[in-house]
Model the fold of this input.
Amino acid sequence: MRPLSTPRLFVKSCLAATMGLALTLSAAAPASAVQPPADETGIVTSGDTAKDVLSPGMKKAEGNIPVFVQFKGKGAYEQTQSPAVLANKQAPTNKQAEVQAIKTQVQSQAQAAARQSSSQALYTVHNTARGVVLQGNAAQIRELARRGDVERITPIIAKERQNASSVVDTKTINTWTRENTGYTGKDVTIAVVDSGVDYTHSDFGGPGTAEAYQKAKDMPELPSADSGLIDRTKIAAGVDLVGDSYNASSTNTEQNTPHPDNNPLDCRPDGFGSGGHGTHVAGTAAGYGVNQDGTTFRGDYSKLTAEQLNQMKIGPGTAPEAKILPVRVFGCHGTTHMVIKALDTVMDPNGDGDFSDKANVVNLSLGGEFAPVDDPESYIVNTMARQGVFTVAAAGNANNYNGVGDTYSNSGSPANAAAGLSVANAYGTTQPTDQMKVLAPEQQAGFVNGVYTSSFGYAAASADKLTGEVVKAPASNRYGCEAFSEQDAAQLKGKWVYIDWEDPATGKFPCGSAVRFNHVEAAGGQGVILGSVQERHEVGIAGNATIPGFMLSKSATDKLATAINDGTLRVELNNDYKAQGRTSHSKALDLVSSSARGQHGSDGYIKPDVAAPGAAEIVSAAVGGGTKGVAFTGTSMAAPHASGVAALVLQAHQDYSPTMLKAALMNGANTDLKDSQGHTYAVDRVGSGMINAKAAVEAKVLAYDTKQPERVSTAFGVLEYTPDSGVQTVTRDITLDNTDSRAHTYTPEYVASTDIPGVSFSLPSTVSVGAGEKKNVTVTVTIDPAKLEKTMDPALEKRQSSRNVVGDKVETTAEGDRQYVASASGRVVFKEDGAEAMRVPVHVAPKPVSAMRADTSKIEFGTGAEQKVKLTGTTLDQGGYRSMLGVFELGAASGRIPTQNLTLASDQVVDVQYVGAASDAPALAAAGKNPDEGNLYFGISTWSNWDVLHSGRSVEVSVDTNGDGQQDYVLEVAREKGLDFPLVKVWKATGDKWDFINQYPLNSAWGDTDTNMMDSNVMVLGVPLKDLGLTSANAKDMSYTVLTNTWSNEGSDYVDRTEKATFNPFAPKVWFEGESAGVPGFFADRAGAELTAHRQAGAFEAKALFLHMHNGTGDLSGIGAGHGERAQVVEVSAASANSRDARFKDVPADNQFYTEINWLAQRQITLGYPDGTFRPGENVERGAMAAFFYRLNGSSQFTPPTKPTFSDVPTNHPFYKEIEWMAARGITTGYGDGTFRPSASVNRDAMAAFFYRNAGSPQFAAPARAPFADVPADSQFYKEIAWLAEQGITKGWDDGTYRPGEPIHRDAMAAFLYRYHEKVLSRR
Done:
């Protein structure tokens, strides 16, 4: 079943298809309302004050949601500490009294906000920023926007731990190679924001017994130093913010409510719970290490040899003498909303207002896939960097994406924070492996490598259950995917059965492990041995719970082949043999496939920043295990490795700021990672390269981007050029920051990882930087747009497939050539004396674009049914790029939502601009073919470019095919797990269920044809008419609505929703024919080409939407002509003797406003009076004004509330619905006494304000010189009246006055509405 939300409250409005008008509404006080002063609680009743605070997401949110309410003012640390402290040049100053005063103030504000909104205050923050996280009813929290002390209200996205699910019990050493830097992280504190830490483990200096763990678990406080349960030198402080039962995603109030205490002890691991995660992370970063006898290593780390390390039970962490600050944000299972609180706690762990105990480094092995860069946690990470605290975050493992990390922008928040270090997951040089003991034949006796099954309980099994003789399965059932015959079973009974895991030719496995084990067990087999063509599988095998099993490595399979064929093989398994072996890594210095790809420059940055070892070789402390170790895999394990290295650097360079620390880590990451074919991974996949502790610690000259030093890397972004624009050069500077006491001279050179024809980099031949000096180095990129080709990164997979395991079978749900961004990227390497000294990632993604237009603003048919439309401009046809055009009957237009009114600025990518529909059924019919075989296409443009379309951004077209007002089908833009390419999924409503019908690639083509899928704001959803049950036999108008949403818009049904538009796919008002682009639904967008426009008989007015798919972005500000370059609206008209004469008997043809009033009547914006009059000289009443605006907006679907908003507008008022509609959109909030005064006249100044708000309160700088003599610059509605004049909507009176205080007459109102349509809406 596919759940669909039901829209309840509109945030913005679009006119119906026949009008194509665009209006954006924002909350504002009514023009004639009086704004009262704030009362003692800080509440201000003016909607104008609230509009920049309350996002549309909060305006329309419903239900119980968590929200971060940020109060005005700096956080306590930034407020109380000097610039020298913030720059890490001095230790924090004790300002307890001031900090406590700020804390008390925030708590007081939070309590008031919670009371006012009847919400639960989950927690407050005051160190990094001032605010409170509330859990409560969205409608009530919404009212907090009126408080004068509120800065911003933002929903919170739940975060999850970032490690894959493969876990192997082990007793072996750590498997990363520790560089001997001479530093151990001493006096540096690493905060581990995670599931807690088992401080009783011997890796952290604890007693190392299960009894100690249980005793500690019963304590509400961190044990004292003399308790015998904890080493307070290692764990000086800590806090549990949530409790064991906490799970932010739970609908159970008891579980989604934190139960904090001061004991951050980790949970025991249980299934896929989060228990054990934080302990493993902490041990990886800063564990002491555990000797073979289970005691804590207390020796000299600088004297440890590789042989001694190999003899240790658990090797030391990267910074073994660093302190650990555990801050628990995960319960034993599930997700968390507590990251903001945790980051605030890091600044002052004991909450006493003295920041001297703050952490230096924060490890965040958590995050959310595809989460936006402007997520609140990312904001806090960047704030903390300004306050001297450095954050390391896991890039992510595509946990919810089938482990396919190589999908654009999969890595989300907080890994995408500008100032944080995002860490990718790489393979080290060696890896642990399970082992099986060969008992016979004698010449093969000993241990071989492989993998134990995960479902069987080896620890509890008896020795005879784990020992057996091996026979080979019959060739007819070599994989064991089918049930064995009785004859075969007789040969297998009582034996262990050898079967092949995969097809040697293709490497694909035909069925899952469970079904094979079940078949062997049914045949009487006692165990299973699986042969493999791979040396090691990244993902383990399950088997079943009743018989043991072991998958051999390729080398073991080859070694035992003769014994298997001869039937002489006898084997033994044992729980102690798990992870007992070491083997060279077959993928050494390769990237783990699940490591998440980051951003590709669309927003001016790239991620991740570095890579570190994090595959299943990272052995660290096991929670509740006393002295035992456990191996996890994932970027969760890579991140603490980097955090440990950061601690080493800080010990060596105590005055390094977070930016300098990040530069040291990235500059020194000088080992390239390569795929199996030897291709170097690009910087938007792994950043600089594999982290190098020694190089980072020794870094005294640092290199970072001059413009954005906190990012270190230099990204030019996605650059658009038409082929005829000539050779372009762009430059950016890299700063060399020499902290050394001597000068250095470098030879800079660019080392490419990806290339594009027509792009080259140049650098100065040498650069010298003196002691204590900073010097900029200019990187120049030369681009010849005429030579650009769509070139794929050689390390990318060309094709992608989405595969789901259904029962025992693996199904491919979607497969096709991937879409990708062509980029030129590499590293600027600074060499000194011929050796690499440091490196900086650089990236540019130049994209050739067309500049095409329909060479007309209006298609006039006269009395004919056809008309030619010529295309003009600059065509794109080179190197895999070819300009394409989709043309549609415009259904709706929608104004730009002011960015400050969005939940997050990035939500603008789903702020709808235009929508339209088209069908090729008429063309098929005209060609004598079956129109029922045609397709239906929906074209959509938005007000901002997306980098990629992913599951965190929802676009749906809801279709009513039978006219009953209910949605019958939904077309959903969605991603299948493992695919970059968005799909159009078709769903059919069947009662209360949604049945999946089919799916198609967005823009009707896979990635082998470029449709400008990425870094665009236009899309086309194509679907066969028959999928929607549409046939020419039942041809009639259908209706459709477009809804969009994002993950950040939690608690709300949509970011944007268009009004209902109608379309007849077999008889559209206007349709087109022309040269095909080779992709269904698209024409070649070529200069000189002509389209033939066809008009349906009887259709007199329509608009056509031209989507120039490959045009450049242009200006999408929404101001003036700022509607971008891809979407073009063209009017379609035809003369007709049957057009309605809407003249009223009191509006003669020579009336000054005859045309405007007639226009209003034709569109039924005004109905006049029952006696056939319009009464042009009468004043416009406020109730009638509401009706005018409602109808101007297409008389949208709107269900007014059962309880009136205004005391003087009862439910039976003739304009009740229209007035409530205006109130719901924030065009008016009525008067301070709760009335609307529907019979009162509307003054001319107030009317200007209504028009301005109806346009979305666009950015507008009012002129210094007043346009009218009687409207001074300090008048209440000066800006709105000036805007009205600037747009040409009002001309004022002949004497140069506007007469703002006069009531507006009905004829003048008609003129205003007409000019507003012609001069504002028609240009969008």
Notes: The longest helix spans residues 96-117. The mean pLDDT is 83. The CA atoms of residues 116 and 144 lie 8 Å apart.
